[in-house]
């Protein structure tokens, strides 16, 4: 059953997705009529959010109808008409395939972090010095990628290679390789109650001259409910270290909360052939002897490792393949959730 669902989601549209799209299109039509007589800012904003799906559904239905008409002409007794239909069938099939792809993409809710900066954390795995060297290579790879794409970066903590890409929209670019929201909003993933955090200031450790031994500039934050600890001593300024530590703590707490929510629906998505890839899973292989990069989620192989490690266009191709894969998983998740609602009698 899961295999069949995957095939449908990959090459066509399930009834559940079409139903969802038509409901959105109907809402778009209703809002358009309402705004024609009485403007409302929130309704206008909602209208803009629904417009993409409404337009994509219209194109899908037109492409489907056009292909159906051509296929009916293939059995025509008029040879000239039949030949014209045969010439147009393949372009019409391509048009329909594109329309299906666009409609599925329009149904995927925008990620709540998509417009925000992206935190990238690189940790050496098993392998000692060799693993640490490779972690450094990855850090430089992402820094080069960001520089080539005009994305600003800031290295927050080199000890564990936590970096932040602080350009707006960077999360959408980097989320497939592993944000900051309003942390004053209690409903935000980034909200952390100050009362839940223990703050310690101490003298920085390691080389650094007399200042290291005389100023309590290092900051350590402990999130009491989870036991999560973040320590920053990069700057000589205590306030700057504290600010960095809070940013890193909020990002880690937000990621943890997001993973907890994803875990709640992972069984549904597995039922539709869509599994979650977490930190425990091997997602990519870098093979120097074969000059090969393999992404195990998208199934994409590329033999241009040097360019990948330079943050070049080859890395774009790898990341694009994963971006496409992630979109497909989102569609499968939507199918699973809609089918579960149908079985339980809940409205979509």
UniProtKB/TrEMBL annotation:
GO BP, sorted A to Z: mitochondrial translation
One of the record's GO cellular component terms: mitochondrion
Keyword Cytoplasm: no
GO molecular function: translation release factor activity
Pfam family, one: PCRF
Keywords: Methylation, Protein biosynthesis
Family the UniProt entry places it in: Belongs to the prokaryotic/mitochondrial release factor family.
Protein name: Peptide chain release factor domain-containing protein
């Amino acid at each position: 059953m899961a295999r069949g669902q995957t095939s449908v989601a990959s090459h066509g549209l399930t009834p559940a997705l079409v139903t969802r799209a038509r409901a959105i299109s109907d809402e778009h039509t209703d809002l358009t009529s309402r705004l024609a007589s009485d403007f409302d800012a929130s309704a206008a904003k909602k209208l803009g959010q629904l417009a993409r799906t409404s337009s994509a559904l219209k194109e899908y239905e037109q492409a489907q109808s056009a292909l159906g008409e051509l296929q009916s002409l293939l059995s025509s007794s008029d040879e000239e008409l039949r030949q014209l239909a045969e010439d147009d069938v393949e372009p019409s099939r391509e048009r329909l395939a594109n329309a299906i792809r666009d409609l599925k993409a329009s149904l995927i809710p925008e990620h709540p972090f998509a417009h925000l900066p992206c935190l990238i954390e690189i940790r050496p795995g098993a392998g000692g010095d060799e693993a640490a060297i490779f972690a450094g290579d990855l850090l430089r790879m992402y820094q080069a990628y960001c520089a080539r794409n005009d994305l600003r970066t800031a290295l927050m903590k080199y000890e564990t290679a936590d970096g932040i890409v602080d350009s707006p929209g960077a999360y959408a670019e980097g989320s497939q390789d592993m944000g900051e929201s309003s942390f004053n909003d209690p409903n935000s993933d980034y909200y952390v109650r100050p009362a839940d955090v223990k703050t310690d200031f101490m003298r920085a450790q390691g080389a650094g001259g007399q200042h290291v031994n005389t100023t309590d500039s290092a900051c350590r934050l402990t999130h009491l409910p989870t036991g999560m600890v973040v320590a920053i001593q990069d700057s000589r300024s205590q306030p700057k270290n504290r600010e960095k530590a809070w940013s890193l703590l909020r990002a880690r707490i937000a990621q943890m909360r997001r993973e907890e929510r994803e875990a709640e629906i992972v069984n549904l998505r597995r039922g539709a052939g869509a599994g979650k890839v977490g930190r425990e899973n091997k997602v990519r292989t870098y093979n120097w002897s074969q000059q090969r990069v393999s992404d195990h989620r998208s199934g994409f192989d590329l033999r241009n490792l040097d360019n990948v490690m330079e943050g070049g266009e080859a890395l774009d191709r790898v990341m694009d393949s994963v971006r496409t894969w992630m979109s497909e998983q989102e569609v499968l998740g939507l199918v699973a959730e809609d089918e579960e609602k149908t079985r339980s009698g809940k409205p979509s």
